[in-house]
Amino acid sequence: MSTTTLPDTDLHALFTLLEDARRDDPGEVVPWALLEGLARLIRADSVQWTETDWVHESLVERQGIQAGERDEVMKFAMGEETATFFRACRNFRALTHPQFMAPTRRATQISDYYTDREYLDTEAWAEYFQTGPARSCLNVRLPSPPGHARRVVFMRSTFTHFTDRDVMLLTLARPHMHEIYLDAERRRQGVPKLTARQWEILQLAGDGLPNAAIARRLVISPATVRKHMEHIFDTLGVRSRTEAAAVALPHRPPAPMFSSVGDA
Fold first, then answer.
1. 135 Cβ neighbours under 8 A, 6+ residues apart
2. Is the pLDDT of residue 69 over 50?
3. What is the residue-averaged pLDDT of the chain?
Protein backbone atom coordinates (compact mmCIF):
# COMPACT_ATOMS: atom_id res chain seq x y z
CA MET A 1 0.00 0.00 0.00
CA SER A 2 1.50 3.30 -1.08
CA THR A 3 1.67 6.23 1.31
CA THR A 4 2.04 8.78 -1.48
CA THR A 5 -1.72 9.45 -1.59
CA LEU A 6 -1.68 10.68 2.01
CA PRO A 7 -1.02 14.38 2.51
CA ASP A 8 2.00 15.41 4.54
CA THR A 9 -0.31 16.80 7.22
CA ASP A 10 -1.75 13.33 7.86
CA LEU A 11 1.67 11.70 8.00
CA HIS A 12 2.93 14.38 10.36
CA ALA A 13 -0.12 13.97 12.59
CA LEU A 14 0.39 10.19 12.68
CA PHE A 15 4.07 10.57 13.54
CA THR A 16 3.28 13.09 16.27
CA LEU A 17 0.62 10.97 17.99
CA LEU A 18 2.90 7.91 17.97
CA GLU A 19 5.74 9.88 19.51
CA ASP A 20 3.38 11.36 22.12
CA ALA A 21 2.19 7.84 22.99
CA ARG A 22 5.76 6.60 23.45
CA ARG A 23 6.43 9.40 25.95
CA ASP A 24 3.11 9.11 27.80
CA ASP A 25 2.44 7.13 30.97
CA PRO A 26 1.88 3.45 30.02
CA GLY A 27 -1.68 3.45 31.36
CA GLU A 28 -3.55 0.29 32.34
CA VAL A 29 -3.48 -1.19 28.82
CA VAL A 30 -1.94 1.37 26.44
CA PRO A 31 -0.98 5.05 26.88
CA TRP A 32 -4.05 7.28 26.69
CA ALA A 33 -2.16 9.55 24.28
CA LEU A 34 -2.33 6.75 21.70
CA LEU A 35 -6.12 6.44 21.74
CA GLU A 36 -6.71 10.18 22.10
CA GLY A 37 -4.43 10.84 19.14
CA LEU A 38 -6.16 8.19 17.03
CA ALA A 39 -9.55 9.69 17.92
CA ARG A 40 -8.36 13.05 16.59
CA LEU A 41 -6.86 11.49 13.46
CA ILE A 42 -9.82 9.35 12.36
CA ARG A 43 -13.35 10.60 12.95
CA ALA A 44 -15.48 8.15 14.92
CA ASP A 45 -17.86 8.04 17.89
CA SER A 46 -15.65 5.52 19.66
CA VAL A 47 -12.12 4.13 19.41
CA GLN A 48 -11.14 1.12 21.49
CA TRP A 49 -8.13 -1.06 22.17
CA THR A 50 -9.63 -4.47 22.88
CA GLU A 51 -8.49 -8.04 23.41
CA THR A 52 -10.92 -10.96 23.49
CA ASP A 53 -10.31 -14.58 24.46
CA TRP A 54 -12.37 -16.71 22.09
CA VAL A 55 -11.44 -19.97 23.82
CA HIS A 56 -12.89 -18.91 27.19
CA GLU A 57 -15.32 -16.38 25.67
CA SER A 58 -14.19 -13.51 27.84
CA LEU A 59 -13.04 -9.94 27.44
CA VAL A 60 -9.37 -9.77 28.42
CA GLU A 61 -9.04 -6.00 28.35
CA ARG A 62 -10.61 -2.90 26.84
CA GLN A 63 -9.55 0.73 26.92
CA GLY A 64 -11.30 3.33 24.87
CA ILE A 65 -12.43 6.84 24.02
CA GLN A 66 -16.19 7.34 23.85
CA ALA A 67 -17.61 10.61 22.50
CA GLY A 68 -14.25 12.29 23.08
CA GLU A 69 -13.98 11.17 26.72
CA ARG A 70 -11.95 8.43 28.38
CA ASP A 71 -14.12 5.39 29.01
CA GLU A 72 -13.82 2.97 31.92
CA VAL A 73 -10.95 0.49 31.49
CA MET A 74 -12.17 -3.12 31.70
CA LYS A 75 -10.12 -6.25 32.33
CA PHE A 76 -11.07 -9.92 32.46
CA ALA A 77 -14.77 -9.19 32.12
CA MET A 78 -17.51 -11.75 31.70
CA GLY A 79 -21.23 -11.09 31.82
CA GLU A 80 -24.41 -10.92 29.79
CA GLU A 81 -23.08 -8.37 27.29
CA THR A 82 -19.88 -10.35 26.77
CA ALA A 83 -21.79 -13.61 26.34
CA THR A 84 -24.09 -11.96 23.79
CA PHE A 85 -21.11 -10.66 21.83
CA PHE A 86 -19.47 -14.09 21.53
CA ARG A 87 -22.73 -15.81 20.65
CA ALA A 88 -23.74 -13.23 18.03
CA CYS A 89 -20.34 -12.60 16.46
CA ARG A 90 -18.81 -16.06 16.27
CA ASN A 91 -19.62 -16.33 12.55
CA PHE A 92 -19.59 -12.61 11.76
CA ARG A 93 -16.98 -12.36 9.01
CA ALA A 94 -15.90 -8.79 9.84
CA LEU A 95 -15.11 -9.58 13.47
CA THR A 96 -15.00 -13.29 14.14
CA HIS A 97 -13.08 -16.09 15.81
CA PRO A 98 -9.36 -15.66 14.96
CA GLN A 99 -9.20 -19.30 13.85
CA PHE A 100 -11.44 -18.51 10.88
CA MET A 101 -9.89 -15.21 9.86
CA ALA A 102 -7.33 -14.94 7.09
CA PRO A 103 -4.14 -13.25 8.34
CA THR A 104 -4.05 -9.61 7.31
CA ARG A 105 -2.02 -6.58 8.31
CA ARG A 106 -4.46 -4.26 6.58
CA ALA A 107 -7.17 -2.41 8.42
CA THR A 108 -10.64 -3.54 7.33
CA GLN A 109 -14.23 -2.41 7.81
CA ILE A 110 -17.61 -4.10 7.76
CA SER A 111 -18.21 -2.98 4.17
CA ASP A 112 -15.24 -5.13 3.08
CA TYR A 113 -17.33 -8.19 4.00
CA TYR A 114 -20.99 -7.15 3.73
CA THR A 115 -23.17 -4.69 1.91
CA ASP A 116 -25.27 -2.53 4.24
CA ARG A 117 -28.30 -4.72 3.53
CA GLU A 118 -26.37 -7.94 4.21
CA TYR A 119 -25.04 -6.48 7.44
CA LEU A 120 -28.58 -5.76 8.64
CA ASP A 121 -29.47 -9.41 8.01
CA THR A 122 -26.67 -10.80 10.19
CA GLU A 123 -27.13 -12.32 13.62
CA ALA A 124 -24.41 -9.95 14.87
CA TRP A 125 -26.53 -6.95 13.92
CA ALA A 126 -29.79 -8.35 15.26
CA GLU A 127 -28.44 -9.49 18.63
CA TYR A 128 -25.56 -7.12 19.37
CA PHE A 129 -24.68 -4.18 17.15
CA GLN A 130 -28.23 -2.88 16.63
CA THR A 131 -28.33 -1.50 20.17
CA GLY A 132 -24.78 -0.11 20.13
CA PRO A 133 -22.76 2.50 18.21
CA ALA A 134 -21.36 0.20 15.52
CA ARG A 135 -23.32 1.02 12.36
CA SER A 136 -19.91 1.34 10.74
CA CYS A 137 -16.76 -0.23 12.12
CA LEU A 138 -13.08 -0.02 11.14
CA ASN A 139 -10.58 -2.29 12.85
CA VAL A 140 -7.05 -3.61 12.57
CA ARG A 141 -5.79 -6.86 14.06
CA LEU A 142 -2.63 -6.90 16.16
CA PRO A 143 -0.36 -9.79 17.19
CA SER A 144 -1.95 -11.68 20.09
CA PRO A 145 -1.72 -14.99 21.97
CA PRO A 146 -3.29 -18.11 20.39
CA GLY A 147 -7.08 -18.04 20.56
CA HIS A 148 -7.10 -14.32 21.33
CA ALA A 149 -7.99 -11.38 19.10
CA ARG A 150 -6.34 -8.05 19.89
CA ARG A 151 -7.66 -5.13 17.86
CA VAL A 152 -7.97 -1.38 17.61
CA VAL A 153 -11.57 -0.64 16.65
CA PHE A 154 -13.24 2.57 15.44
CA MET A 155 -17.05 2.71 15.54
CA ARG A 156 -19.59 5.13 14.09
CA SER A 157 -23.26 5.32 14.97
CA THR A 158 -24.19 6.02 11.34
CA PHE A 159 -23.77 4.01 8.16
CA THR A 160 -20.93 6.27 7.05
CA HIS A 161 -18.17 4.12 5.64
CA PHE A 162 -14.57 4.88 6.53
CA THR A 163 -12.44 6.28 3.71
CA ASP A 164 -9.37 4.84 2.03
CA ARG A 165 -7.42 7.51 3.90
CA ASP A 166 -8.69 6.15 7.24
CA VAL A 167 -7.83 2.58 6.26
CA MET A 168 -4.34 3.58 5.15
CA LEU A 169 -3.57 5.58 8.31
CA LEU A 170 -4.66 2.74 10.61
CA THR A 171 -2.72 0.20 8.54
CA LEU A 172 0.42 2.35 8.74
CA ALA A 173 -0.03 2.77 12.51
CA ARG A 174 -0.45 -0.97 13.14
CA PRO A 175 3.17 -2.09 13.77
CA HIS A 176 3.92 1.04 15.80
CA MET A 177 0.85 0.52 17.99
CA HIS A 178 2.01 -3.02 18.72
CA GLU A 179 5.45 -1.74 19.72
CA ILE A 180 3.86 0.89 21.97
CA TYR A 181 1.74 -1.80 23.64
CA LEU A 182 4.79 -4.01 24.28
CA ASP A 183 6.72 -1.04 25.66
CA ALA A 184 3.80 -0.14 27.95
CA GLU A 185 3.73 -3.73 29.23
CA ARG A 186 7.46 -3.63 29.85
CA ARG A 187 7.26 -0.33 31.74
CA ARG A 188 4.39 -1.57 33.90
CA GLN A 189 6.03 -4.87 34.78
CA GLY A 190 9.61 -3.74 35.28
CA VAL A 191 12.35 -6.38 35.14
CA PRO A 192 10.94 -9.73 33.94
CA LYS A 193 11.51 -12.68 36.29
CA LEU A 194 13.79 -14.89 34.22
CA THR A 195 16.47 -17.26 35.44
CA ALA A 196 20.14 -16.47 34.83
CA ARG A 197 20.26 -19.11 32.09
CA GLN A 198 17.12 -17.71 30.43
CA TRP A 199 18.62 -14.20 30.41
CA GLU A 200 21.76 -15.62 28.84
CA ILE A 201 19.82 -17.46 26.14
CA LEU A 202 17.60 -14.48 25.44
CA GLN A 203 20.62 -12.19 25.10
CA LEU A 204 22.16 -14.52 22.52
CA ALA A 205 18.83 -14.85 20.71
CA GLY A 206 18.57 -11.07 20.69
CA ASP A 207 22.00 -10.96 19.08
CA GLY A 208 20.57 -13.03 16.23
CA LEU A 209 21.90 -16.49 17.08
CA PRO A 210 19.65 -19.44 16.18
CA ASN A 211 18.98 -22.20 18.72
CA ALA A 212 21.71 -24.49 17.39
CA ALA A 213 24.36 -21.77 17.69
CA ILE A 214 23.17 -20.86 21.20
CA ALA A 215 23.42 -24.54 22.19
CA ARG A 216 27.00 -24.75 20.93
CA ARG A 217 27.96 -21.52 22.67
CA LEU A 218 26.54 -22.66 26.04
CA VAL A 219 27.44 -26.35 25.61
CA ILE A 220 23.86 -27.54 26.05
CA SER A 221 21.46 -29.34 23.70
CA PRO A 222 19.25 -27.54 21.16
CA ALA A 223 16.25 -29.18 22.88
CA THR A 224 17.25 -27.50 26.15
CA VAL A 225 17.53 -24.13 24.39
CA ARG A 226 14.11 -24.66 22.82
CA LYS A 227 12.57 -25.52 26.21
CA HIS A 228 14.10 -22.42 27.79
CA MET A 229 12.72 -20.27 24.96
CA GLU A 230 9.25 -21.72 25.53
CA HIS A 231 9.45 -20.79 29.22
CA ILE A 232 10.66 -17.30 28.28
CA PHE A 233 7.70 -16.83 25.92
CA ASP A 234 5.27 -18.00 28.62
CA THR A 235 6.79 -15.71 31.26
CA LEU A 236 6.77 -12.65 29.01
CA GLY A 237 3.44 -13.38 27.33
CA VAL A 238 4.91 -13.15 23.83
CA ARG A 239 5.01 -15.41 20.79
CA SER A 240 8.34 -14.70 19.11
CA ARG A 241 12.03 -14.16 19.82
CA THR A 242 11.73 -10.62 18.47
CA GLU A 243 8.93 -9.74 20.90
CA ALA A 244 10.76 -11.41 23.81
CA ALA A 245 13.92 -9.42 23.12
CA ALA A 246 11.98 -6.15 22.77
CA VAL A 247 10.13 -6.67 26.05
CA ALA A 248 12.90 -8.04 28.25
CA LEU A 249 16.36 -7.05 27.07
CA PRO A 250 16.02 -3.32 27.86
CA HIS A 251 15.67 -4.47 31.50
CA ARG A 252 18.29 -7.21 31.54
CA PRO A 253 20.26 -7.42 34.79
CA PRO A 254 23.97 -6.50 34.94
CA ALA A 255 26.34 -8.99 33.28
CA PRO A 256 27.51 -10.71 36.51
CA MET A 257 23.92 -11.88 37.06
CA PHE A 258 24.16 -13.89 33.83
CA SER A 259 26.29 -16.53 35.56
CA SER A 260 24.52 -19.83 34.92
CA VAL A 261 26.70 -22.47 36.57
CA GLY A 262 24.49 -25.39 37.48
CA ASP A 263 21.47 -23.86 35.70
CA ALA A 264 21.14 -25.90 32.52
1. 129, 155, 156, 157, 158, 159, 160
2. yes
3. 87
- Residues forming a β-bridge with 69: 66
The whole domain housing 233 covers 192-258
Does residue 1 fall inside a structural domain? no
For 161, which DSSP code? P
**How many whole angstroms separate alpha carbon 145 and alpha carbon 180?**
17
Which of residues 135, 157, 188 is at a domain's end?
Answer: 188
Domain stops at, among 166, 188, 210: 188
Closest CA to 158 of 47, 44, 64, 66: 44
What does the alpha-carbon distance between residue 225 and residue 228 come to, in Å, rounded to a whole number?
5
d(CA 183, CA 246): 8
pLDDT digits (tens, 9 = 90+) for 110-121: 999 999 899 999
Mean pLDDT of 148-174: 94
Residue 44 belongs to some domain of the structure: yes
- Residues 141 and 12 both lie in one domain: yes
Estimate to the nearest angstrom the gap between the alpha carbon of 12 and the chain centroid. Answer: 23
The secondary structure element, H or E, covering residue 142 is strand 136-142
